[in-house]
């Protein structure tokens, strides 16, 4: 690595922040069941403590995404949660309403044909906006399980129009610094017609909602043949890319640690972002977030793995020679253009990462330091004891 490349990688790392999910530290599972972990978080204090441990070791995870229904108790002052986060060295990040768990959402939330349910879903989101204002969050993250499982079950156009109306009404409640992110997913739990099934649907709905609505891309929410970096490039060009939920997958929304299956895909996504910034002379404002739940890997270790991999791939993508790439593209030199990307992907950025961590007084190997720290051993002993005292059946509720 040349000195110029080292500086580019270090500069990229200086600007890169990625948000951890509160729910990723609790016992979670699949529709088939859970495999409990003694060190899994029981309550919000545990979740924020674990998030604080990740940030203390990596230096790039200052905020924690939260789920309103799981992380805020009824009647609780949201500012108390913000103070608790500060105690653990982090801040509250994206606010996620829960529009899929309650029984009233059996037939959908914003797309439900019952106006009473639609109104309740909208009010929950408005309450979530208020929580965001109270805790200093500038991001409302929306994912909907709405859809139908059988042909003829519902009016596709009527459901679309219901979403337009609700999102427009919600956008009016945003604070001047708040952004609303609209996520999409091709299937699960709806398997015939998911109401927001792809990036185009999310884009149209966000635009109809208002100027502070953007699209959120979850890397696990695509069919295997889809070109995610092309979607990213289009959204960037339209100034509509608001954020990511990062994970990896083999089949669909598998919630695997980032880069465990296809690190080159994540590199290509980051390349499109760096390339856009180079062309426009500015970095786009993007909320980078993790959305993973782990049954098998230890929660904190899996999160650290994803964060470290994200840093590595982001730094690698910063090494692409954009001037050389443009020349190759102008000449239709396919081989040279591909090699320029490959050279950056296979570059050794370990020296840049080590230097950046030393400069920021961080451990050179965050995962090894976490394992040496004894944090999990102490947390497991404490939480196992508390579960017995609380009468919880190993992990209790979902989050």
Topology:
Blueprint lengths: L2 H13 L4 E2 L7 E2 L2 E2 L9 H15 L4 E5 H4 L6 H10 L3 E6 L18 H21 L3 E4 L4 E2 L7 H16 L7 E5 L9 E2 L4 H11 L3 E6 L9 H10 L3 E6 L16 H18 L6 E4 L8 H19 L4 H9 L3 H12 L4 H10 L6 H8 L1 H16 L9
Parallel strand pairs: 1-4, 4-5, 6-8, 8-10, 10-11, 11-12
Antiparallel strand pairs: 2-3, 7-9
Helix pairs in contact: 1-10, 1-13, 2-10, 2-14, 5-6, 6-7, 8-9, 9-10, 10-14, 11-12
Write a structural description:
By secondary structure, this protein is of the alpha/beta class. It has a single domain, classed as TIM Barrel. Helix content is 48%, strand content 12%. The chain contains 15 helices and twelve strands. The chain has helices at 3-15, 44-58, 68-71, 78-87, 115-135, 156-171, 199-209, 228-237, 263-280, 299-317, 322-330, 334-345, 350-359, 366-373, 375-390; strands at 20-21, 29-30, 33-34, 63-67, 91-96, 139-142, 147-148, 179-183, 193-194, 213-218, 241-246, 287-290. Strands 6-8-10-11-12 form a five-stranded parallel sheet. It has a three-stranded parallel sheet with strand order 1-4-5. The chain is globular. The termini are far apart.
